[in-house]
Amino acid sequence: MLPPxxxxxxxxFAALADPTRRAxxxxxxxxxxxxxxxxxxxxxxxxxxxKHLAILTNAGLISQEKRGRVKWCKLEPISMAAATTxxxxxxxxxxxxxxxxxxFLETELSEIDLPExxxxxxxxxxxREVD
Length: 131
What we know:
mainly alpha
């Protein structure tokens, strides 16, 4: 039997789009938690929290297992690797620091011998008068 296919980026980002699900993931950073403990801080029914947990499970962001009569949730951080890699692809270009760029240009241009502005104007005027 083949292992299950990794969750799609769409499923991961859809799961992360909801603030309740992000809060659940943050809670699970600490340790595995029983479903009832996950539901406790939220002002919603256990069934509503269970739906959020199902979405997180389908996205591969958490796993659930039954230990005795209690269902436990565990964070699966490796499942975020594809999303993290995709996001980091956009970080390859550093933001341009215009102040530093201006200083660089001033330094470079100060080292180049440029003709005085008045000389350049006169040479252009002389060329026009020759006609």
